[in-house]
């Protein structure tokens, strides 16, 4: 909404951006108006994007909206864009770093804009920017947008946000009571603060009104918005603020002239002071329509008696308001007002007070809207609006983009932007509505379409393609309201087939769309007019229950309806309670007869479809189409008769489907019905347990499968077979229990059956397994999973847990999981019978040692062989007891929060027996991780090393991966596998291995012979050690270069002796020693000691030498020696003398030399200079030493108008060459700078091609100017420059005195052109101007801050005879001068 960056900040980015836009933009084929009904979206000719959306055009090549993505440019476009836009704003998070007060609020409470994430130098997206805040203007715009958009959408959220902002402003943004401007809103605030009292002032952009300063027109704007808010909810605080504002505006009204407006641009609240001074124009502001709108609203309320009794209101005040309104309106429309003078300047809060004559388009655009909303106030409104539109197009219209005219913001920020383009569109849309001007309607349509491209898919809305930031005014407050105005003026731009209230001349207090063909709404004023677009044809409209008549116009109360676009316009004067009713639906009725709802079919299903369809009386059926989702199954075209039947042309697969029938009648209206069905494929089934190849114990075994039915069906049975023999089945799940007997089982499969009629059946893939009678290790009782809770008791205490046996068998092993933290080295486990819910007789027990270091860091299973080996019976209740050795410390175990537990007194040295005796019931639930296994094999573990191979050799230090295969005996589990070196040194351990293949890494083995073994230990502490695997480790060889010595020097042709010593690690020998030169060049290899060779005839220059020792390992190891540097010198000869020396004076202080290099072996050149003595050289002295092959030299710092002599010779280590012939040059006289700055300054600045820049200077002397000079920075891309000298005008360049052209630009140097002699006078102000003509490159100069001014004028190919551009900045000059 404002000048987003000082131009000094953004100008350097403009050139690149302009190039990008030129590459992505196509010129529209025509500017002629076209009907806006052409909506077939196509990629625009030439392609390209506008911001992040691909440009969409209609059949005429003109721009459409990018939205909605499914149908770009349709009537839903603006609705779609505004919905994205609103939702983004409403989702903004609260910020916690705000101050004064320090409360969390969204960014728009304290900041004017945030980063888009794609603007140069501004990221990430959503990051607030330290720029003055503009709360009064923003909040007034948001209230207008919220009160218009919320009833349009019947969505209160935007309106609620706007009213909350108004409440905050009234509490935290008002002037002090007692100020000259008492208790009225401030326009601006400091960045990041929640109390508004003006922002720091200055003389550029990016500054505020000034602390303690306000803008009277913003007082009027926010007060007008407060009146609208009062009309909506009756909050008298809003009304009272508006009355105070109107009274303050009335009391401060001035007599306006052409240079003094009714109120100042800015004024200090405390004392009514207005800033004055050079270039400061705070006494003038063109925006008076905001106060005029305020007075108009309050006068209407006062005349209606709605303000009686309000503080600050009286009949006297009403008369004063009327007088003020008349005075201001007369000035606006009169010869001194901006409509006549076109002095549309001053609006933005963040433009400095000395931004002279900052033209903008916002104020004239808002003025045009006001005149069209109130044509009775201005008999010449139509001519005035036409002139305003022309003014905006001329001064702020950008290049057409596919027939759309983007609009720039202001002279201080001359960039095209979305909200301002939308304002221009709204003005044209209203003008077209009032006059029927088709050209204006097309301008509006294309401009609105262009503005939609500023809204991204996320709803984030940028100000414009450049600088691409996210202003809350430009993106929301000033954006939404114009689209709603546009749709109110042209209802065919609102979504077809929907109900929307588009415009009211009052405030809409409530609206309801539906039920059915009905719309109800209430306006504050009994007398107002509305525009709606409906999805139905209205049959009746009532106001306060009284029917309004349908009319051909709205010259009186009544309503009109346009059947072409379903636009309803209503005028009412007796009541604001409006009800619109429509005729009942006219679409054909549809009832599906086949398939029936919920019906299930077997896949693949080819459906027979049927429906009964009844059209509205007087119509016929054109077609009936059956679909499954979006897929057409079949279509019956006219003539159509009931029942409508057809067979699907494609089949449906497994899943849920929605079958619909759509009937279209002879007038194109459609009706539909749908039913949900399912199509079932056969069940899926696969065996989970046992796995194929498994060996199972005899007895109770669970067979399980993964199985599911097709869509819409359930499983009725899962059964397991061996061939044709059933093993077991289930009707409630996917697993069953089988009593396994010994034998080999092949072709075992699972069969799943569903509930269909007929039922579908699927067999799984078969598996094979073995049941062995000798296999032990079947869990008989207890829990074999690790629990979730780490519990404990003290040594000498017994904890007992109740379990039900899950299998029948002979008890062989008892196991317990010792938890992390266990400190007891001996754990006893016992099995007890159940005695009425308590442990009874001790049946069997054993004790296991905890052999790992205590306390345990990692939990581990421990077990022991039960004695005696009793038989446990499936389904019988038993108790498993755990005792930690008395005095042995805390014992810990893992348990689950379920089951029964009892514990005994402490101090026991053994498990209680023969009976458990008394015990205490644990109040919670617990079942410990402990269990009993059936008796089986007691075979010790088996283990063998698989890697490394025997007798393997490795290079030390080596990271070895030790691998072994280890298995426990039947019924046992491995607790760990350990690897040892030489039988005693532990290398690494694998605890609780989960597979038979185990591995671990070791890096501790050193040079020498080793013997590695693996030791496997099971849960009963049985252990087996593998056969030893011998291996060796060898350290890499060592090598040291003994010849040549470091930094040795040789003379070409040279023979360099190379020699090295080398040694190897254990069991290896030296295979060879390689000698390398200069990194990778192999000189020779030596295989026997002493290692060496001779390097013959190396090239002249510096070299490096190294030795590499390689051993006999497989793979071989190698080592590099330290690198030694040597030099091979040649017999150097003196270089040949250079020739052809020339000397050229290029300025008053510089002479350039050039010569021809005649030698190939010089190391450099020696440049000598001598003064001129009577036409001959004096004494020469050396002044430069250019390097080898250099043939130029610049001698700077010479005196003007002076002759110098030069000579040059070549040099190398052998000596110096002869001199060149002498050469001389005479420097010209130094130029005289009469106007400007002949110093090369340090800071670069620039303007784009086509933008002229002028700087003012005071002449330092009187004389005649014959040359204009500018120092051109090296970044310049311009190839031609126009330079100019101007007299001084009123703070801007005046009469053009002289111009000239630099036809070939030299970057990084002074560029000069000649002019006809022009007299200048000392002490007089002149302007120096520069222009890179439009279409050329950018011009960069050098500048610095200082006194003086800088003005710009865009859009030029030659320097202007009369300077009309006024944008620019004070306090700047550049390296440019006029002299002779």
From TrEMBL:
CDD domains the record matches: FN3 (cd00063)
Pfam families, alphabetized: Big_7 (PF17957)
Domain of life from the UniProt record: Bacteria
Fibronectin type-III domain sequence ranges: 1137-1230
Record-linked PROSITE patterns: FN3 (PS50853)
InterPro entries for this protein: FN3_dom, FN3_sf, Ig-like_fold
Protein's recorded name: Fibronectin type-III domain-containing protein
């Amino acid at each position: 909404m404002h000048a987003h960056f000082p131009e000094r900040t953004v100008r350097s980015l403009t050139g690149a951006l302009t190039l990008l836009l030129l590459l992505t933009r196509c010129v529209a084929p025509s500017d002629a108006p076209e009907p806006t009904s052409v909506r077939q979206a196509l990629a625009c000719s030439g392609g390209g994007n506008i911001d992040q959306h691909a440009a969409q055009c209609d059949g005429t090549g003109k721009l459409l909206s990018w939205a909605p993505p499914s149908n770009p440019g349709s009537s839903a476009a603006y609705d779609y864009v505004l919905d994205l836009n609103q939702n983004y704003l409403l989702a903004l998070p609260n910020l916690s770093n705000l101050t004064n007060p320090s409360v969390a609020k969204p960014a728009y409470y304290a900041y004017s804009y945030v980063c888009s994430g794609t603007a140069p130098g501004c990221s990430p997206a959503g990051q607030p920017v330290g720029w003055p805040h503009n709360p009064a203007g923003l909040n007034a715009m948001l209230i207008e947008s919220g009160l218009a958009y919320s009833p349009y959408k019947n969505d209160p959220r935007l309106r609620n946000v706007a009213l909350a902002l108004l409440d905050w402003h009234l509490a935290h943004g008002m002037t002090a009571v007692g100020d000259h401007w008492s208790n009225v809103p401030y326009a601006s605030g400091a960045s990041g603060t929640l109390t508004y009292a003006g922002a720091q002032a200055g003389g550029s952009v990016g500054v505020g009104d000034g602390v303690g300063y306000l803008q009277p027109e913003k007082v009027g704007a926010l007060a007008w918005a407060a009146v609208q808010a009062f009309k909506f909810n009756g909050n008298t605080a809003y009304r009272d603020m508006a009355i105070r504002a109107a009274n303050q505006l009335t009391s401060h009204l001035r007599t306006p002239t052409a240079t003094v407006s009714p109120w100042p641009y800015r004024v200090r609240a405390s004392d009514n002071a207005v800033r004055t001074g050079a270039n400061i124009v705070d006494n003038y502001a063109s925006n008076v329509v905001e106060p005029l709108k305020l007075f108009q609203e309050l006068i209407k309320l006062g005349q209606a008696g709605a303000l009686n009794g309000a503080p600050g209101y009286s009949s006297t005040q009403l008369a004063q308001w009327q007088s003020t309104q008349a005075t201001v309106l007369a000035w606006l429309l009169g010869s001194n007002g901006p409509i006549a003078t076109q002095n549309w300047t001053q609006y933005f809060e963040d433009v400095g007070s000395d931004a002279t004559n900052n033209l903008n388009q916002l104020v004239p655009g808002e003025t045009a809207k006001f005149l069209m909303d109130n044509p009775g106030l201005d008999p010449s409104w139509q001519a005035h609006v036409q002139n305003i539109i022309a003014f905006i197009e001329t001064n702020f219209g950008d290049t057409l983009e596919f027939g759309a005219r983007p609009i720039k913001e202001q002279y201080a920020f001359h960039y095209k932007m979305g909200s301002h383009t939308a304002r221009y569109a709204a003005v044209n849309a209203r003008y077209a509505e009032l006059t029927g001007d088709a050209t204006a309607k097309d301008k509006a349509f294309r401009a609105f379409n262009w503005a939609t491209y500023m809204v991204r898919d996320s709803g984030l809305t940028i100000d414009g393609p450049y600088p691409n930031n996210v202003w809350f005014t430009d993106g929301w407050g000033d954006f939404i309201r114009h689209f709603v105005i546009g749709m109110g003026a042209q209802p065919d731009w609102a979504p077809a087939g929907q109900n929307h209230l588009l415009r009211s001349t009052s405030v809409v207090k409530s609206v309801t769309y539906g039920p059915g063909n009905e719309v109800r709404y209430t306006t504050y004023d009994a007398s107002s007019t509305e525009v709606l677009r409906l999805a139905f044809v209205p049959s009746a409209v009532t106001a306060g229950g009284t029917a309004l008549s349908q009319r051909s116009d709205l010259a009186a109360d009544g309503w009109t309806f346009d059947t072409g676009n379903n636009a309803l316009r209503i005028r009412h004067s007796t009541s604001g309670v409006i009800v619109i009713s429509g005729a009942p639906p006219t679409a054909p009725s549809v009832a599906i007869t086949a398939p029936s709802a919920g019906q299930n079919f077997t896949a693949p299903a080819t459906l027979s479809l049927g429906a009964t369809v009844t059209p509205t009386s007087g119509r016929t059926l054109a077609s009936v189409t059956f679909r499954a989702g979006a897929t057409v199954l079949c279509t019956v075209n006219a003539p159509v008769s009931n029942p409508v039947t057809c067979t699907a042309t494609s089949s449906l697969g497994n899943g849920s489907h929605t079958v619909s029938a759509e009937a279209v009648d002879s007038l194109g209206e459609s009706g539909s019905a749908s039913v949900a069905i399912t199509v079932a494929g056969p069940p899926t089934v696969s065996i989970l347990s046992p796995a194929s190849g498994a060996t199972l114990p005899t007895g109770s075994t669970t067979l399980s499968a993964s199985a599911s039915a097709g869509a819409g069906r359930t499983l009725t049975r899962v059964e397991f077979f061996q061939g044709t023999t059933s093993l077991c089945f289930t009707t409630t799940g996917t697993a069953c229990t089988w009593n396994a007997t010994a034998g080999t089982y092949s072709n075992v499969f699972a069969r799943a059956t569903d509930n269909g009629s007929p039922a579908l059946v699927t067999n799984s893939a078969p598996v094979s397994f073995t049941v062995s009678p000798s296999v032990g290790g079947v869990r008989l009782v207890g829990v074999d999973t690790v629990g979730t809770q780490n519990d404990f008791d003290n040594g000498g205490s017994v904890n007992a847990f109740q379990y039900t046996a899950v299998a029948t068998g002979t008890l062989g092993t008892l196991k317990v999981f010792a938890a992390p933290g266990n400190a007891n080295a001996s754990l006893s486990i016992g099995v007890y019978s159940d005695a009425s819910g308590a442990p009874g007789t001790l049946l069997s027990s054993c004790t296991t040692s905890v052999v790992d270091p205590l306390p345990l860091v990692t939990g581990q299973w421990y077990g022991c062989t039960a004695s005696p080996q009793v038989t446990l019976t499936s389904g019988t209740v038993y108790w498993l007891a755990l005792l930690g050795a008395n005095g042995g410390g805390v014992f810990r175990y893992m348990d689950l929060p379920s089951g029964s537990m009892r514990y005994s007194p402490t101090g026991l040295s053994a498990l209680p027996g023969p009976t458990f005796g008394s015990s205490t019931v644990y109040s919670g639930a617990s079942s410990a991780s402990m269990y009993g296994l059936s008796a089986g094999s007691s075979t010790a573990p088996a283990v063998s090393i698989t890697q490394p191979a025997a007798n393997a050799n490795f290079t030390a230090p080596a990271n070895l991966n030790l691998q072994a295969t280890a298995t426990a005996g039947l019924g046992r589990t491995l607790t760990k596998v350990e690897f040892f070196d030489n039988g005693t040194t532990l290398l690494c351990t694998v605890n609780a291995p989960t597979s038979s293949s185990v591995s671990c890494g070791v890096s501790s083995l050193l040079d020498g012979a080793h013997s590695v073994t693996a030791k496997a230990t099971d849960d009963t502490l049985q252990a087996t050690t593998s056969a030893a695997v011998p291996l060796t480790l060898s350290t890499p060889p060592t090598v040291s270069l003994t010849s040549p010595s470091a930094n040795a020097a040789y003379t070409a042709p040279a023979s360099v002796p190379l020699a090295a010593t080398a040694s190897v690690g254990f069991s290896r020998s030296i295979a060879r020693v390689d000698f390398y030169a200069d990194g990778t060049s192999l000189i020779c290899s030596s295989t026997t000691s002493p290692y060496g060779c001779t390097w013959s005839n190396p090239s002249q220059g510096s070299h490096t030498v190294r030795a590499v020792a390689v051993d006999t390992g497989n793979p071989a190891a190698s080592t590099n020696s330290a690198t030694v540097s040597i030099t091979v010198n040649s017999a150097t000869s003196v270089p040949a003398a250079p020739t052809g020396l020339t000397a050229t004076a290029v300025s008053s202080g510089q002479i350039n030399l050039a010569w021809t290099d005649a030698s190939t072996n010089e190391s450099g050149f020696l440049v000598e200079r001598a003064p001129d003595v009577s036409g001959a050289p004096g004494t020469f002295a050396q002044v430069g030493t250019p390097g080898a092959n250099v043939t130029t030299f610049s001698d700077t710092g010479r005196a003007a108008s002076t002759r110098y002599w030069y000579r040059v010779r070549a040099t190398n280590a052998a000596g110096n060459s002869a001199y060149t012939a002498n050469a001389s040059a005479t420097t010209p006289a130094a130029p005289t700078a009469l106007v400007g700055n002949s110093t090369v300054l340090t800071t670069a600045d620039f303007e784009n091609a086509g933008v002229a820049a002028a700087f003012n200077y005071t002449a330092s002397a009187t004389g005649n100017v014959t040359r204009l000079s500018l120092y051109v920075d090296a970044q310049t891309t311009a190839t031609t420059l126009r330079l100019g000298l101007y007299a001084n005008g009123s703070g801007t360049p005046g009469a053009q005195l002289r111009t000239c052209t630099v036809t070939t630009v030299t970057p990084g140097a002074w560029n000069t052109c000649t002019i006809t002699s022009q007299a200048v006078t000392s002490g007089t102000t002149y302007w120096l101007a520069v222009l890179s003509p439009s279409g050329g490159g950018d011009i960069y100069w050098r500048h610095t801050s200082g006194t003086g001014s800088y003005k710009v004028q865009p859009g030029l190919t030659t320097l202007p005879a009369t300077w009309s551009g006024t944008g620019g900045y004070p306090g700047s000059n550049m390296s440019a001068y006029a002299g002779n």
